[in-house]
Amino acid sequence: MSKQAMREDAERLVREAMEKKGVTVKQGDTRIEATCGKCGAKNRVTAPKGQLRTKFACKECGHKQDTL
Ligand SMILES: [Zn+2]
Fold first, then answer.
1. How far, in Å, is the centroid of ligand 1 from the Cα of 57?
2. 55 CA distance to ligand 1 middle (Å)
3. pTM of this structure
4. Domain containing 12: what range?
């Protein structure tokens, strides 16, 4: 294997590792089971990592609200 090929292989591994990291961050998102304040339907909402409140629109009636 030539030196250039080895370098390209190393770059590819770094890129793959970074992509995996991105997936890990996504898995760290908070899943919230939110009950709609208008119709009482249960909604599964995903909030960014470390955040417990997020805006969502009810899947049943479309009412926009914040999770409690
Ligand atoms: Zn609703």
1. 8
2. 13
3. 0.55
4. 3-66
Counts for the chain of helices (H) and strands (E), in that order: 1, 4
**Angle at 22 (CA atoms; ends 17, 26), nearest 5 degrees:** 145
| Cα 32 to averaged position of ligand 1 atoms, centre (Å) | 15
* Number of domains the chain is built from: 1
**Residues at Cβ < 5 Å from ligand 1 ion:** 36, 38-39, 41, 58, 60-61, 63
pLDDT for the residue numbered 22: 61
Considering Cα of 22, then 27, then 28, then 29, what sign does the dihedral take? positive
- Residue 17 alpha carbon to ligand 1 centre in Å: 41
pLDDT single digits (tens) 9-47: 999 998 888 777 665 555 678 888 999 999 999 999 998
